Amino acid sequence: TGVIRLRAMAKAGALAYPIIAINEADTKHFFDNRYGTGQSTIDGITRATNILWAGKNVVIAGYGWCGKGVAMRARGLGAKTIVTEVQPVRALEAAMDGHQVMHMDEASRIGDIFITLTGDVNVLDRRHFDVMKDGAIIANSGHFNVEINLKALETMSESKRNVRRNVDEHRLMDGRKLFLLGEGRLINLAAAEGHPASVMDMSFANQALAVHYIATRDERLPVDVYDVPREIDSEVARLKLASMGITIDELTEEQEKYLTSWEEGT
Amino acid sequence: TGVIRLRAMAKAGALAYPIIAINEADTKHFFDNRYGTGQSTIDGITRATNILWAGKNVVIAGYGWCGKGVAMRARGLGAKTIVTEVQPVRALEAAMDGHQVMHMDEASRIGDIFITLTGDVNVLDRRHFDVMKDGAIIANSGHFNVEINLKALETMSESKRNVRRNVDEHRLMDGRKLFLLGEGRLINLAAAEGHPASVMDMSFANQALAVHYIATRDERLPVDVYDVPREIDSEVARLKLASMGITIDELTEEQEKYLTSWEEGT
Amino acid sequence: TGVIRLRAMAKAGALAYPIIAINEADTKHFFDNRYGTGQSTIDGITRATNILWAGKNVVIAGYGWCGKGVAMRARGLGAKTIVTEVQPVRALEAAMDGHQVMHMDEASRIGDIFITLTGDVNVLDRRHFDVMKDGAIIANSGHFNVEINLKALETMSESKRNVRRNVDEHRLMDGRKLFLLGEGRLINLAAAEGHPASVMDMSFANQALAVHYIATRDERLPVDVYDVPREIDSEVARLKLASMGITIDELTEEQEKYLTSWEEGT
Amino acid sequence: TGVIRLRAMAKAGALAYPIIAINEADTKHFFDNRYGTGQSTIDGITRATNILWAGKNVVIAGYGWCGKGVAMRARGLGAKTIVTEVQPVRALEAAMDGHQVMHMDEASRIGDIFITLTGDVNVLDRRHFDVMKDGAIIANSGHFNVEINLKALETMSESKRNVRRNVDEHRLMDGRKLFLLGEGRLINLAAAEGHPASVMDMSFANQALAVHYIATRDERLPVDVYDVPREIDSEVARLKLASMGITIDELTEEQEKYLTSWEEGT
After folding, report:
1. Which residues from B are below 8 Å from C54, CB to CB?
2. Which of C172, C190, C208 is the last residue of a domain?
3. For residue A2, what is the nearest residue in chain B, using CA coordinates?
4. Which chains touch C (3 or more CB pairs under 8 A)?
5. B251 and A103: CB-CB below 8 Å?
6. DSSP strand E in B39-166: where?
7. ipTM given for this complex
C-alpha cells in the first residue's frame, strides 16, 4: 500500500528517483496475497490457539486476494466459511465460490473465528462484539492493527488476561469471553513466521530483476512510478516453474500468428 | 472476442455509433466464463458420454477464466486435473491451485479426457493424437472449432462412426480409438444447453442497463468503444445478490473516510 | 435393500438356493453409492433444470454414502451445502466435513434445491412445503418415490403443469411455485442415465465372479445369504485399478511379517 | 492398537477385568484419526519447516482414516496429492477421490514431501531414498518411529546436522540433501501439539461414559473386551453437536415405523 503514497509523490513532483512498484507484479500480489497470506493466516491462528478448523464457522471480512486465500484455505481444512464484503461484485464472487455471504451484523452471531482482511478501520466494532458467542476468537490479517476496534473491546471488557501466547481473553461485563489474537496485529507475523520462503522468493526476484533493469538500461529511466515490466514478471514465473521442475508449452509459429491476427482485429 | 474487431474499427474511424463492450464487465466475464463455462462444459461432456469424472485424468488446455472454471469443476467431481499453458504466470497459478502442469506432449500420453479452452489453433494436433491412449475423449470449449486439428484427425483415421449423439469414434490406423465430441465445436452448446439462465441474466442486465445509459444521457455519447460504466457493473451485482436473498455490508462514514484518505495517499 | 428381505427368508428357512449379497461388497456400495449416485444425482437435476449450482443453497437429507456423495459433488460445483440427519454420528461427520447441519424445518426456509436420500418416508412433508421459498426445486434420489410426501404436495397445490421435461410446477394456494423433479422418483434414473458404466462395471464384475465362485467350488455352498468373499472384492478392485493404468505397492516379506505379528497381538 | 493385544489376552484368559475398547467408538476413530490427525500432521510439518503447501507434490503412504485425513487437508492447502497403498480397495478409493495413486518407487522420484501413515515398517526404505529429489522432506505420522527406515538413512548419509527445530538435514554421498522431521516420530506430537482439544473431548467423553457404564450396571460385566455401547457413542455425538450449537432431526413415529418394517424385512 506504500505505492499509493509514492504515486501521490510522483504527481506532486516530490520523487527523487525512479520507482518500480514491485507490489503490482502478478508474481508478487497474485501469489503472495492469495497463497502466502492464505496459508500463513490459518497457520498463525492454529499456532496461537491449536483449534480444530473442521466444523467451525469462520467469518472472513473482505474478499480481496487475501480474503480469497484465507477463505479457500479455511474451507480446505473443513471449516464453514462466511464472507462479508462491501463491494457487490466481490460479494457475488464469494457467493458463487460457495461461501455464505451476509452482513457482519448477522455473521457476528454465528462465527466461532473472525478474521479481518479489508484494509479498512473498525470492521469489527462494538456492535459486533455485543452479539458474539461466548468463546469467539478474533484475529486480524489485514491492515496494521486498525481493523478491529481494540479500544471498544477494551472498554467493554471487565478484565483481560493472557491465557496462551498470543491469546488474550477479554471477559465482558455480561460474562462472555472473547479471545483476541496477537493484539490485533497481523496474525501471520505475530503468531507464525509470515510468508513461507517459497512465496517470498518471487517477491525478492522481482526486486532484484527490477533493480538490474534500472541499472543496465542505456538511458536513465525518468523519475516516476513504474509497473514491473511484463518481461520481468514472466521471467520470474518461468524461473519459479523451473525450480518446481515444471516446463510448459510454447506457442508454435502458427499459433503465434493466429493470436496476433486476432489481437490486431484484422 | 468481437470487441477486438470493434476497437480496430473505432481506431480506423469505421464505427457508426457508440458501443459499450458488455463482455468487459466484471459481472459478465467473471461469472459467465468461470462459473458458466466451467459447469456447462462439464455438463456437455457428461451428457454426450455419461462418463464418471471421479478418478479420470482430465487435461485442460488453457488456464484463463474459462480454463480455471473447468479445472475447478472437474476437480469438484473427483477428477485428477492436468493443465497446459503457454503463459508462465498462468501456469504457475495453475500449479499453486494444485493442478498438475506439464507440456501437452506429456499430458497427451496420460489424459482420459481433453478439453481445449485457449483461444488459439491446433492446440491438439497430430503429434498429440499420435500418443493418446486408446479410448481418449476429446472436446473443445474454447474458440469456434479451430482448437482441435480436425483435419489431422480425419487424415489419421481409418474409419469414423457416430456411436452416440455428439460422439464420433475415430479409429486410427494403429487400432486405437479416439472419441471426438460435438465435432469439435463448443461442447456446452453442442451437447448441453449453454450457460444456465442464472449466469446469462447478468449479461442481459448489463446489456439492458447499458442501452438505457446511452439512451438517457443528456448529451450524446461520442462514437467510440466504451467499457461498461462501473456503476452499472455494481448495480447488476447488487441486483443479483438481492435475487439470491443476500444483503451485504456498507461502509460506515468513518470507513469511507479512512479509505479515501489512503487512496489519495495523503 | 433387497438383502434385508433375503436375510429374513434365510432365517425363516424359505430360501431355495445360496445367495451372495453383492450389495455388501466394498467395491459395490463404496463406489456405486458415493461416486455413482453422487455424480448422477447432480447430473439428473442439471439435465432437468439447467440450473447453475454455484451459489445455490442445496439441502441434502441424509448423510449415508449416497448423501455424502451428493453433498461432495454439490460443493464441488460451488453450492452451499446443508445437510439434515437423524443420526448424531453422521450429523457430526457432516458438520466436520464443512457442511451446515440443521433441522429440516429450518433448512426448508433457506434451500434453493432439496434432495432426499434417507431411505425413509415423508422426509419432505407438508410443514416443509409450507415454508419453502418461491421457486424451490425438489428432487429425490433415495428410496422409491416415498421420501417426498407427494400426496401432501398435490393437496396443497392449486394447479400443476409440466414446464420442462421432468419438471412439474406446483402452484400453491399462496402463490408460491415449487418445482418437483421426475415425479419424485429417483432423479438420476428419471432425468439422467443412472450410474456411469465405469461404476456399474464393478458391480457386474462382483456378480460374475460370485456366480463363478459358487459354480466352481468343490462342495455345494449351503443355502444361506453370504457376503462377497473378500478375495473377490479385492480382485475386482485390482482389475479396476489395472483398467485405469494404476499399479500399487505390495507388502514386502518383512512388512507382511510385521503386520501379522501385530494383528496376532504377539 | 493396544486393543489387538488386549483381545489376545482375553482369548488367553489373561485379562483381570472387563475392558471397553474406546478406540473402536465411531466418535473416537472417525474424528480423531481423520480430522485430528489430518490437521495436526499438516500443522506439525508446517511448524517444523514453514513450507508453502500450494503446488507441492505431497506423497501420502497409506489411505486408512489417517491417510485420508492428511490427503484431504494437504489438498485443501493446494498441494498435489499422491497416495500409495497396498490394499486395492483403498487404492481405488484414493483414485476416485481424485488423488494420484502409484508405486512408492515411482512416487519417490516426484515427491517434495513424504508422509507415512501405514502402520507398517520401512515404508520408506533405502531404495526410495536413493531416488528422492534433492531437498525432499520426510515425515511420519503413523506408527511409532518404524515406518521410515532410519538406520538405512543414517547409513547412506555422509553427514547430518540439525538445521531448524525438528529438521535434520541428511547429506547423502551423492550430494543430495534429505530433510527428516522430528526424528521420524509422530510429527503431530513432535512438532505441533497433537490433536486439538475439540477432537480429544470426544475421546475423553467416551472414556468417562464407559467407566460410568461399567460402574453403574446392576450386574458385573464379565471379564472380556467390549465395544463401546452404541448408545454411548450416539450420546457423545449428540453432546458434541449441542456444544456446536447444532440440533438435528428426529424420526417421526411414521418414519420410525417404516424403517423398522424395512429392517425386519416384513
Report:
1. 35, 39
2. C190
3. B265
4. A, B, D
5. no
6. 57-61, 80-84, 100-101, 113-116, 137-140, 157-164
7. 0.94
